[in-house]
Write a structure and sequence with these properties.
This protein is mainly α and 133 residues long. It has four helices and no strands. The chain has one domain. The chain is elongated, with a radius of gyration of 16 Å.
């Protein structure tokens, strides 16, 4: 019973730390997206790809060293993490396209909505695949 409780708390701690790291990655992602779209004039889907890549890399490094504390096979883990990130990018881009091009919603607010969905998807996949012990 005690082991089950400790396991439950440890798993929730990992999610909480993942969320904090995710906020830093999402902030980097959104700031880059916002700058590229609004100041540089980059097409919003291309800006999304660039900004997502920066967020993915940020999150991989921080999760590797501070959350999951897995330093072995980093190149292989990064490939796995990045591939999962590409799933998130695909989901984000599809949602952005639907919201911006089809529903004519604001591209900046739409990007914020995509981040919420992608965080949950990527956490579960990365926990089970990229950072499994």
């Amino acid at each position: 019973m005690k082991a089950a409780i400790l396991s439950f708390l440890k798993e929730r701690r990992s999610f909480a730390v993942y969320c904090v790291i995710g906020v830093s990655g999402a902030a980097l992602d959104y700031a880059c997206y916002f700058a590229l779209v609004n100041w540089v004039g980059v097409y919003y889907l291309l800006a999304n790809a660039v900004s997502c890549s920066l967020g993915i890399t940020n999150n991989f490094l921080l999760n590797s060293f501070f959350n999951f504390k897995t330093k072995d096979r980093l190149p292989a883990r990064f490939v796995s993490f990045y591939c999962i990130g590409l799933l998130g990018l695909a989901a984000s881009s599809a949602m952005l396209y639907g919201m911006v091009s089809l529903a004519h919603l604001d591209r900046n607010y739409s990007k914020l909505w995509t981040l919420a969905v992608v965080v949950v998807l990527q956490y579960n996949l990365n926990r089970l695949i990229s950072f499994r012990k």
